[in-house]
Amino acid sequence: MNAWTPDPILLEVYANRFSAIAEEMGVLLQRTAFSPNIRERRDYSCAVFGRDGELVAQAAHIPVHLGSMASAVQAVQSALDLGPDDAAVVNDPYAGGTHLPDVTVVMAAASAAGRADFFVASRAHHADIGGPRPGSMPLVDHIDREGLRLAPQLLVRGGRLEAGLWRRLLGSVRAPRERAGDFEAQLAACRTGAERLRELAAREGSEQLQRYAAALQAHAERCLRDLIRRLPDGRYRFEDFLDDDGLGSEDLRIRVTLGIDGDSIEVDFTGTAPQARGPVNAPLAVSTAATLYVLRCLADFPLPVNAGLLRPVRLVAPPGCLVHARPPAPVSAGNVETSQRIVDVLLGAFAQALPDRIPAASQGTMNNLLLGRGQPDDPAAFAYYETIAGGCGAGPGWDGESAIQIHMTNTRNTPIESLESAYPLRVREYRLRRGSGGAGKWRGGDGLIRAIEVLEDGLDLTLITERRRRGPYGLAGGSPGTPGENRIVRADGSVEILPGKVERTLAAGDRIVISTPGGGGFDGTNR
Fold first, then answer.
1. Which residue of 17, 229, 467, 495 sits 20 to 30 Å from the alpha carbon of 144, by its own alpha carbon?
2. Is the pLDDT of residue 526 over 60?
3. Is the separation of the CB atoms in 290 and 297 below 8 Å?
4. Secondary structure of 230-261 in the HEC alphabet?
5. Mean per-residue pLDDT, 221-232
6. Rounded (10°) CA dihedral 183, 188, 189, 195
7. Angle at which helices 206-229 and 176-204 cross, to 10°
8. What gap in Å lies between CA 387 and CA 407, rounded to an integer?
9. Among positive and negative, which fits the CA dihedral 90, 92, 95, 99?
10. CB-CB neighbours of 233 under 10 Å
11. Cα distances (angstroms) measured from residue 13 to each of 18, 223, 240
């Protein structure tokens, strides 16, 4: 009997069908969410997974979410037997999550026989998930001090909310009405995705869907192997450093050795610093997501994005190191900051193999700003979270883009009108940081300056930022980008220069001013 061969036209049709389901989920989530962080900044991701929990298709959302979500789906599969009207929730970074504010909702899409042939998932960054500081990204030394930690468990059973868990969720967070609206938006997105898969299976047959999902993953594997085969064999090393962990440790090394051999690649993080006391530790799912993102960036052709991309890759990360953290290490900044540095290190290594393709380092930080007030039991409590764009690295033949969210984030800015209407905050300045990009034949992109005034006393500020002690590296003789700077301008005119990771309390009239890094320059004149 001849082996089944997918029809190439139908393969493309199914690729678009699966990704369209994820895109529709995302549109519904964004339009029904309550918080500006999800509704305006679009800090969420949606995807479709196969029976084995492996990624089949995704929407064009956030790289650090999408490359790691399969681990959360598989953790749910291991812990629970999801029925067609059930929904699970998980945010535990050591069970497939990234950091606690990123909460994943998972639903099964059952076939006509009642067996789950596919799963859908939505992940959204909730502006608060409890803990001692508004925004749930405190500078602490234990995962359980960061906020509410959820192992895989049922949020919906047989179509009905689990009342006990729902009360626990909303009783643990600031602004529970806003959180409830965001959770309900995630559930609606997953219900829509599951229904679309059921409709497709009823029309085309479950076996047909399974076959083409597997064929798409095999196609992605072939594409990546073809790409790796075009790279020069060899071993390429690079290292870079995180500024600090927020609790006193500085210059935390991330080191990688790339081993390219034929159509496969080894990504070895041996030599990376041990996990830190502060919250810059990255779970392995985050490091996997960063690696997957960089491999996608190498392609000069449309590369299908699914689980097949990881098959040619062997990832080595010693347990207990900064990029493979183990409990009870805190991880809130690992998802947002360490993931960015992993990308910088991987691109620096690939630049040795592909000097005519790889750009200099981009800003290397998400510039996380968290402002809020009160504890979860305070009816006046609120939490606001945003990331701030910066400069993109220049490359061989192009200047870097200015004022852009780059690499592991794909969010938008919060519109000033939305920010000021929702919170006691006023944006006083928002402009390019001219000249902050690194010099070279091709200049790095410029960062931003964003100044926000606090309109009420007693607001809590948390900053989680990087590239404040050294700028993003240049390549081929290009200069580094200008490091970022954080400062408070008090109502009385005094100025406090802040470290990259800090907690403060602000009074009415105080301004927090964030100057983001520029990208590295690229020269290449003497190459």
1. 467
2. no
3. no
4. CCCCEEEEEEEEEEECCCCCEEEEEEEEEEEE
5. 95
6. 150
7. 100
8. 13
9. positive
10. 11
11. 9, 18, 42
Distance, CA of 235 to CA of 189 (rounded, Å): 44
CA 496 to chain centre: 30
Query: Which residue, among 91, 107, 110, has the nearest Cα to 99 in the 3D structure?
Result: 91
Task: Let me know if residue 312 belongs to a domain.
Answer: no
1 falls in which pLDDT band (50, 70, 90)?
Answer: very low
pTM over 0.85: yes
Question: Would you say residue 510 has pLDDT above 80?
Answer: yes
Write down the pLDDT at residue 4. Answer: 83
Note whether 106 and 190 are within 8 A (CB): yes
Looking at 203, 221, 239, the residue that finishes a domain is: 221
Domain count across the chain: 2
Judge whether 328 lies within some domain: no
Determine, yes or no, domain membership for 406. yes
Torsions phi, psi of 152, nearest 5? -55, 125
Distance separating alpha carbons of residues 351 and 355, to the nearest angstrom: 5
Token pair 């949020």 is at which residue? 155
Q: How far apart are CA 24 and CA 227, in angstroms?
A: 30
Q: What is the DSSP letter of 326?
A: -
> Do the beta carbons of residue 108 and residue 82 sit within 8 Å?
yes
* Structure tokens, 512: 């927090």
Question: Parallel, antiparallel, or unpaired for β 264-268 and 250-261?
Answer: antiparallel
Write out the two tokens for 302. Answer: 């449309």
3-class state of residue 162 by DSSP: coil
Mapped onto helix, strand or coil, the DSSP state of residue 129 is coil
Buried b (16+ CB within 10 A) or exposed e, 304-324: bbbbbbbbbbebebeeebbbb
Inter-residue contact 126 to 137 (CB < 8 Å): no
How many angstroms from the chain centroid is the CA of residue 170? 24
Average pLDDT over residues 8-15: 94
SS3 string of 406-463?
Answer: CCCCCCCCCCHHHHHHHCCEEEEEEEEECCCCCCCCECCCCEEEEEEEECCCCEEEEE
Question: Among the three residues 221, 252, 269, which one is the final residue of a domain in this structure?
Answer: 221
3-state secondary structure 21-70: HHHHHHHHHHHHCCCHHHHCCCCEEEEEEECCCCEEEECCCCHHHHCCHH
Dist. CA 51–CA 214, nearest whole Å: 10
What pLDDT shows up at residue 350?
97
User: Looking at this protein, which amino acid is placed at residue 251?
Assistant: D
Nearest alpha carbon to residue 238 among 286, 271, 261: 271
Q: What is the pLDDT of residues 410-426, one digit of tens each?
A: 788 889 999 999 999 99
Contact 374, 380 (CB under 8 A): yes
CA atoms within 13 A on the CB side of 212: 21
Listed in sequence order, the DSSP H helices in 205-338 are: 206-229, 284-298
Give the domain extent around 387.
359-527
Which residue, 334, 286, 335, 294, is CA-closest to 313? 294
Question: In sequence order, which residues have a C-beta less than 8 Å from that of residue 197 and are 6 or more positions away?
Answer: 21, 48, 109, 117, 118, 120, 209
